Amino acid sequence: MTTNPERIVVAGAGVAGLRVCERLRKQGYRGALILLSSEDHQPYDRPPLSKDVLTGAKDDSSLAVDLEALDIDLRLGAAATGLDVAQRIVQIDTCDGAQTVHFDALVIATGSSPIRLPGSDTQMVLRTIDDARKLRNKLRPGQRLAVIGASWIGAEVATAAAGLGVAVTCIEGGSVPALGALGEEVGSRLLSWWNDVDLRLNSSVAHVTDHGVRLSDGEHIAADTVVIGVGVRPNTDWLDGSGIDIDSGIVVDAHLRAQISGKPLDNIVAVGDVAAWWSHRSGTRMRLGHWDDAVSGAVTAAATLLAGGPELPIHDPVPYFWSDQFGHKLQYVGHHTRSDSVVFREPDSGPGWSACWIDESGILTAVLAVDRPKDMVFGRKAIEASRVVDPDRIRDAAVAIG
Q1: Measuring CA to CA, how many Å separate 14 from each of 60, 294, 322?
Q2: Which of 396, 356, 350 is closest to 376 using CA atoms?
Q3: CA neighbours within 13 Å on the CB side: how many for 43?
Q4: Residue 189, SS3 per DSSP
Q5: Residues 43-102 pLDDT 10s
Q6: How far apart are CA 10 and CA 26, in angstroms?
Q7: What is d(CA 262, CA 299) in angstroms, rounded to the nearest whole number?
């Protein structure tokens, strides 16, 4: 175990990479700390991009951190392009050309990139601060926007655009919004929120044109701007040839250590969107791509690199994410499968409702709280405890979950 590395390189300056740096310093690490950023901006938070930045309430979402006080060597415009595990070298691409950076320990936090669709290069995505500012400049009253995908990012973009007076058409392949994440029974409850949007369900896209979207049935939907929100892919291409195990992300063990041929590496960890970690609680490998996982994973990653004894920290949090759309706050906690049954909690008075998933053994596996934050809080505690619940009891919205 690399208990006292002299030089730690962190590839990726998003919230996961930056939080690892902060945790390393908090745990007493005093060696060299190099943070590589593929962008030219100071580290920033991504959740506000589709909310405050897109609507113009804020112009940026920079993270409040004193890099000088933490003695972090932040290198902007330094994208990781290759890794030599044996030589402990990261290849990077900079404005001055190709360079190499030596490490004793490495944190891989290179995140993910949005999936694009076939067709015109005019299509837009929303992943970076530059993306948000560019899209914001196009959201004007009377403009026509086509959003591909009615899940989290698509709904948030549609919300912001409609609120700014943009005519929004959303094209979704599923039968309801957020079908893949929530299933048809729960997703159908979101349909009424889309009244101000031309929502095209069960529709597939053939390609994006310079002036809109061509559907598979031949129809052309005219739009001044097209935004793609159909998912992301982990940024692992730069690891080709390194030997690192990759399967829908970097395959890591319970301590977030990267592996080669199934053997964990003591001096390389992966965290955030790029890491595919094993959840003992859920019995499956997860790659979440959510803010909460990046932050909690940073704690584990830092502790793993500095651990001196046989006891290593385990990363198996209860997944959590949130979304603000059409005036509602959605908070999802846990992880459910299609075989889980769902129970709804609807108060006789007051806002919101919640959906609770229960597996065949009666254990609460997930909760979606809509405008009911206490349901999320109590649900999370019950899921952490793998608690068996009574469906009839939790159906009563006046009773706390669990």
Answers
A1: 14, 9, 18
A2: 356
A3: 27
A4: helix
A5: 999 999 999 999 999 999 999 999 999 999 999 999 999 999 999 999 999 989 999 999
A6: 16
A7: 23
